[in-house]
Amino acid sequence: MAMRILAIETSCDETGVCILEYTVTGVVSILGNALSSQIEIHAKYGGVFPTLAKRAHAEKMVPLLTQALDEAYLLEVIEEPIDSKDKLDFLNEKESQLKEQLSPFVSFYKKPDIDYIAVTIGPGLEPALWVGVNTARALSSVWNIPVIPINHMEGHVVTAMLSPVESSSSSKVYKVEQPQLPILSLLVSGGHTELVLSESFGKYQKIGQTRDDAVGEAFDKVARMFGLPYPGGPAISKLAKEYRETNPPSAHSGGGGENPFTMPRPMLHSGDYDFSFSGIKTAMLYTIRDLTSANSRELEIYEKQALACAFEDAAIEVLIKKTLKAVEEYGAQTLIIGGGVASNTYLHSELTKLASVKLLFPEPWLATDNAVMIGMAAMTQVISENITTREAETLKADGNLSL
């Protein structure tokens, strides 16, 4: 017997809707998946504006919902449209854009054959989160389907446990790995940098977090110093890679060549598992100012490459050394890397060389925010029979929600 989940993600600047199916054989199939990025909207501001994000989520939600259900062959027109106005009365004037689109959708399409609705309730940007939460509330009320509230960070943890089924010609079919406990998760993105310990499935203890900038945020801010568009993390990593390729490590130094720039390693020896990246960012700012202001010039390309490499070396070294120290102290048997920065190739290669435990990374397309991760988090709850559902009217968004 199959179990299906409709999942919704709107925590930041990605609107996602997907349909997942789990069978008794332990296989997860992505029946439908729709995702819309807001990068172009926010690029000119150098970061995400919550009010603009909310508006874009509301605009894209129903088209993406329609697309995902259609891909899953679960979109069926009602012969006699129903009046669902009373079920959507909770949507106030601030949600008028969403209400205008949801009202005809629930009136003209049948209840799909799904068992649960999963939705991100936090952490994230609250105006953005509320679009997903209100959509889940509306669909739950009209279709009478239970809702599973999901912590966005748990989604990043469980997505790394998905491995493609090699024997299938479809890349949308996955097996769920059962990693050995305890599990240590390094969750790194534009909004989060934290270390989370799991001594049992579905239970989380945060043992360290950033005290200021998240590592992905620091990458983006350094990119802005170089005049690169948002999001700038991948561009900084590309420059750093170019420097390493043209300045390979010498046989005697054992490190990244003779880089003329060195960045600090904040809190590397702090004795705890917290992080800080504002100091590296400030050091970069002063270094760039000293290079350019005195001679009233722009950075040369080789300077950008060397600086990017020095920054990435420092940031990744701090992440790796603290993470591996925590692996040893807590006896972790599995190390999971989740979040957008999990796709950083230098982090991947260095951890692969240094980690002595089972290492799980998500597929690159699943590392950034998406609805599949939210559906997977809900699915693991159902499979483990440790499920938490909530009445639609009690659903709330919490921008500061913690694991």
Short structural description:
By secondary structure, the protein is of the alpha/beta class. The chain contains twelve helices and twelve strands.
Describe the protein's architecture and organization.
- A hairpin with an 8-residue loop joins β6 and β7 (173-176).
- The chain is 41% helix and 18% strand.
- The model is unreliable at 251-255 (pLDDT under 50).
- The strands form 2 sheets. It has a 7-stranded mixed sheet, with helices on both faces. Strands 10-9-8-11-12 form a 5-stranded mixed sheet, with helices on both faces.
- It has 12 helices and 12 strands.
- It starts with a strand and ends in a 20-residue tail after the last helix.
- The longest helix has 30 residues, at 301-330.
- By secondary structure, it is an alpha/beta fold.
- The radius of gyration is 22 Å and the shape is globular.
Sketch the major β-sheet.
7 strands, mixed
Radius of gyration: 22 Å
What is the general shape? globular
Query: What is the helix/strand order?
Result: EEEHHHEHEHEEEEEHHHHEHEHH
Spatial separation of the terminal alpha carbons: 31 Å
Name the strands of the widest sheet in spatial order.
5-4-1-2-3-7-6
Total number of beta strands: 12
| Overall pLDDT score | 88
Percent of sequence in beta strands: 15-25%
SS class: alpha/beta
Low-confidence stretches: 251-255
Approximate helicity band: 40-55%
Oligomer: single chain
* Tally of contiguous helical segments: 12
